[in-house]
Amino acid sequence: xxRVSKEFHFSASHRLxxxxxxxxxxxxxxxxxxxxxxxxxxxxxxxxxxxxxxxLKPLKDxxxxxxxxxxxxxxxxxxxxTAEFLAKSLFDWCRTRWxxxxxxxxxxxxxxxxxxxx
Length: 118
Ligand SMILES: Nc1nc2c(c(=O)[nH]1)N=C([C@H](O)[C@H](O)COP(=O)(O)OP(=O)(O)OP(=O)(O)O)CN2
Ligand SMILES: [Zn+2]
Description:
5 strands, elongated, 6-carboxy-5,6,7,8-tetrahydropterin synthase, lyase, queuosine biosynthesis
């Protein structure tokens, strides 16, 4: 099995308003998010690719247009925009376009990662 991945970046604010008031993440704050999309395949195409990284450009456009420099509670219309939620949401968006997508990972801080892998 081959696995390839590409990294995307965006900055956004959020507030996990369902957490207790004394939890720091219940307050308005922001992250420099990192998103890694992983694709898997048993076979390579004629160019030796699982899929050309350049074909993932629509994901960069989607992130830039809908998430970058936005308030994520407003974007999604709820107060639970966790890293886990973003990983699943971006996985679903990618999977409708590229069948090889096998996982999406999201980092909010240099020390934390959430992954969605069905
Ligand atoms: N499982 C999850 N836990 C937390 C999430 C999340 O999305 N999934 N999100 C947050 C906060 O939004 C934010 O990411 C803060 O995380 P935290 O690790 O507390 O960040 P710090 O930089 O403050 O960590 P230090 O250990 O103090 O450096 C919280 N939890
Ligand atoms: Zn946060």
